[in-house]
């Protein structure tokens, strides 16, 4: 097998990178430079309350604006960032950016919850709650406005330690969500002990639920499971109106997907929000006499 080239794109596609290899050192150097040279971008995707149609939050998703390769999606560097531990720096950057954008939106009169993705390494970082406290002390976003999305596998990596970190974050007032629910290995015995607010149904189930009866059943039972545990449930990957209607009929609380809004550069979010809200408000006034 040939050595991976030191070029970023090639390295990023190979799942097993020897962390001591020249190629991986070079990618790590590039990632560090990405932060130092301001090449990371915060994208935001709206989360919609299904009953009211209102935007209730935004998920923060990272992109890498590479000087030669253009916009690189997270799946091409997040796994590497996790392997090398660089993810902690990346998560720090995301939280910082979210805090600034939150404050900016607040100045414009918009109050939304921000959801940030955490990885295993973040959960194992015992200083994470303290780092967060320091950030909140500086102003900007407050813990009640933040939701942390964690996958089942990230928790199951070291459940005892994850539980400890999550309990501290919960005590600080942050909301916790299980991301991509149904795709990882998890144990309901652990899940029930976690101080959770939300389950997110993985888009692989949602996208096929109209045509695949098994997926429909999985989505329905996940919604029921979440509600029985007192959790809010959010469906990802809503791409068409039929899926929206189906989820609404199943009493899914929130939805995210291309049908409503794709992830967009953080600076575009306020304008998108106006476009979303204005027609709704208009409809409400026009139909008010009839309802
Ligand atoms: P995720 O947290 O499950 O995020 C949802 C992914 O689904 C996003 O992909 C989003 O663009 C995509 N998506 C949303 N709606 C639709 C839809 O209707 N159809 C389709 N086909 N896709 C949809 P993205 O931005 O490429 O992110 C992929 C994954 O990378 C995320 O999955 C998350 O696990 C990870 N990720 C992204 N940003 C970060 C970050 O800042 N930190 C960490 N640790 N992970 C991140
Ligand atoms: Mg997520
Ligand atoms: Mg997800
Ligand atoms: Mg996902």
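Q: What amino acid sequence fits the structure above?
A:
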């Amino acid at each position: 097998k040939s050595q991976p080239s030191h070029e970023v794109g090639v390295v990023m596609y190979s799942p097993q990178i020897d962390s001591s290899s020249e190629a991986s050192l070079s990618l790590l150097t590039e990632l560090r430079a990405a932060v130092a040279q301001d090449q990371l971008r915060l994208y935001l995707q709206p989360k919609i309350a299904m009953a009211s149609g209102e935007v209730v939050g935004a998920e923060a998703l990272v992109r890498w604006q590479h000087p030669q390769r253009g916009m690189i999606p997270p799946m091409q560097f997040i796994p590497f960032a996790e392997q090398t531990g660089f993810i902690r720096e990346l998560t720090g950057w995301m939280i910082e950016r979210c805090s600034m954008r939150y404050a900016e939106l607040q100045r414009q009169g918009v109050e939304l919850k921000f959801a940030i993705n955490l990885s295993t390494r973040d959960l194992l970082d015992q200083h994470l709650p303290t780092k967060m406290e320091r950030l909140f002390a500086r102003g900007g976003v407050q813990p009640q406005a933040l939701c942390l999305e964690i996958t089942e596998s990230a928790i199951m990596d070291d459940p005892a330690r994850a539980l400890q970190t999550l309990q501290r974050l919960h005590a600080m007032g942050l909301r916790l969500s299980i991301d991509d629910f149904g795709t990882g290995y998890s144990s309901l015995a652990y899940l029930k002990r976690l101080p959770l607010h939300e389950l997110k149904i993985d888009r692989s189930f949602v996208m096929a639920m109209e045509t695949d009866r098994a997926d429909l059943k999985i989505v329905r039972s996940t919604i029921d499971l979440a509600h029985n545990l007192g959790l809010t449930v959010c469906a990802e990957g809503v791409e068409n109106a039929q899926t929206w209607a189906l989820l609404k009929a199943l009493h899914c609380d929130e939805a995210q997907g291309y049908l409503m809004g794709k992830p967009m550069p953080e600076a575009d979010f306020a304008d998108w929000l106006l476009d979303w809200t204005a027609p709704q408000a208009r409809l409400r006034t026009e139909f008010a006499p009839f309802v």
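Q: And what stands out in the fold?
A: Confidence is low (pLDDT under 50) at residues 1-11.
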